């Protein structure tokens, strides 16, 4: 019970405090990939704490004992105890229910999201196959359209799509920078990180942490792709391409929310590159690992208990003497 | 997307450039000028395109006459509309280079860029991106 309460408190505090700290952290723009890892670790840590809290209620914590026979005995006793009375059984039962609901919900939302995006991408790829003409020299396909746009279709039918208006509007250097940016998205499998964040938003829409994490991961992955492109191409070319393509031209179709991202990216690209130093990057990586380990550490008792419970010789053991 | 997608594209291109509806036979004859292809393959592809709503057909005599339901431009416009509106989907389908912004924000971006390119001249910024005659270049750049 204490362990479950500790886990719930940990999850609640983390879900409220951490997004504020991380979202306003100036260093995240200097190390976008590290920041993505931290958002992922944070989300996973909160989810894990909630699942483990349920588990802590369902499984009694058995003190570790070097004598296996005694420990098994203790585990049988404590298991019996925790399901002996109606009230303790209902606590344990609701703990199990929490675990089941959380895990099933995440699994369901992940599957539904993956299937939905796979279908949408397949349909999009089929239409592109008919409508767009391949440009092997660019490693992209060209769609005739008066709006200047560039995007990538990730997954099995991965490809980069440019409109004819984008080709006209972009200079040679800028076009190369755009292609490098999109290739970075595809090579980095950024769609999987987005799918993971999407899953949590879909599964728990009422948890603001996951919504913020999704938005931040989307923004940070753009910065990461900008960085990847800037290794081969002048930062000014990327900034110019951003300015050209954000304006789009042509008629307005589907104006996306979150315009400030474009402005932030341009300002970031116009300033000289300023990556985070090795020491601080390592510290951030360590923090991500710690975030993942804390709920497991808090729940160590019940987790060990679960391990024992699996080996608990429950039916065979006679009731404890005395 | 070789194979089926490529053949669908070839058939649609042919019917889009044709001035009148065509039979499967006529399409096969034209395709065969470029490559060896079986009648039944083309028939299957055209039947699929009909089923998916790309082609409409009409029985004239003993053969179907096929024609595109909509122009290539209409299809492209619809596809781009889907692509640009994708951010409304709950599941991420595409990743855009940059989201579309309002004209006001676009002006802000151009101002930032102009200021940077002007300032960059003194700092030795690489300016190989700007070319004369490029219509979206916000400034002439330091030369």
From TrEMBL, chain A:
Coiled coil: none annotated. Binds 1 zinc ion per subunit. Residues 140-201 form the Peptidase M48 domain. Keywords: Hydrolase, Membrane, Metal-binding, Metalloprotease, Protease, Transmembrane, Transmembrane helix, Zinc. It holds the Pfam family Peptidase_M48. Its cofactor is Zn(2+). One of its GO terms (biological process) is proteolysis. One of its GO terms (molecular function) is metal ion binding. InterPro entries: Beta-lactam_resp_regulator (IPR052173), Peptidase_M48 (IPR001915). The chain crosses the membrane at residues 6-22, 34-59, 91-115, 287-311. Belongs to the peptidase M48 family. This is M56 family metallopeptidase. It comes from Frankia nepalensis.
């Amino acid at each position: 019970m204490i362990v479950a309460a500790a886990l719930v408190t940990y999850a609640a505090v983390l879900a409220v405090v951490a997004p504020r700290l991380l979202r306003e952290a100036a260093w995240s723009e200097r190390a976008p990939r590290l920041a993505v890892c931290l958002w992922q670790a944070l989300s996973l840590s909160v989810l894990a704490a909630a699942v483990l809290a349920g588990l802590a209620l369902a499984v009694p914590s058995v003190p570790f004992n070097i004598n296996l026979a005694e420990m098994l005995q203790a585990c049988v006793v404590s298991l019996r105890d925790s399901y002996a009375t109606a009230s303790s059984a209902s606590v344990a039962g609701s703990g199990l229910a929490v675990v089941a609901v959380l895990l099933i919900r995440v699994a369901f939302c992940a599957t539904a999201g993956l299937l939905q995006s796979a279908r949408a991408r397949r349909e999009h790829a089929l239409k592109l196959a008919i409508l767009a003409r391949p440009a092997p020299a660019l490693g992209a396909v060209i769609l005739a359209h008066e709006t200047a746009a560039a995007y990538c279709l990730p997954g099995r039918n991965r490809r980069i799509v440019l409109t004819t208006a984008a080709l006209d509007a972009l200079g040679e250097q800028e076009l190369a920078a755009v292609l490098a940016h999109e290739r970075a998205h595809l090579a980095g499998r950024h769609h999987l990180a987005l799918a993971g964040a999407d899953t949590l938003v879909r599964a728990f829409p009422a948890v603001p942490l996951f919504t913020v994490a999704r938005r931040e991961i989307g923004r940070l992955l753009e910065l990461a792709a900008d960085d990847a492109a800037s290794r081969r191409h002048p930062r000014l070319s990327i900034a110019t391409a951003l300015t050209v393509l954000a304006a789009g031209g042509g008629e307005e179709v589907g104006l996306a929310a979150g315009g400030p991202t474009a402005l932030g990216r341009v300002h970031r690209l116009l300033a000289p590159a300023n990556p985070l130093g090795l020491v601080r990057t390592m510290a951030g990586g360590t923090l991500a690992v710690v975030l993942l380990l804390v709920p497991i550490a808090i729940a160590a008792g019940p987790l060990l208990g679960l391990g024992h419970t699996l080996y608990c010789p429950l039916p065979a053991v006679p009731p404890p003497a005395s | 997307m070789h194979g089926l997608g490529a053949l669908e594209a070839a058939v649609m291109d042919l019917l889009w450039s044709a001035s009148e509806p065509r039979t499967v036979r006529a399409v096969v004859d034209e395709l065969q000028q470029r490559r060896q292809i079986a009648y039944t393959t083309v028939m299957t592809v055209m039947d699929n395109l009909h089923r998916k709503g790309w082609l409409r057909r009409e029985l004239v005599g003993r053969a179907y006459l096929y024609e595109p339901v909509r122009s290539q431009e209409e299809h492209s416009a619809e596809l781009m509309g889907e692509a640009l509106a994708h951010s409304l989907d709950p599941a991420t389908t595409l990743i855009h280079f940059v989201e579309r912004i309002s004209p006001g924000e676009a002006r802000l971006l151009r101002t930032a860029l102009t200021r940077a390119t002007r300032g960059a001249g003194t700092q030795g910024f690489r300016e190989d991106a700007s070319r004369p005659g490029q219509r979206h270049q916000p400034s002439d750049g330091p030369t």
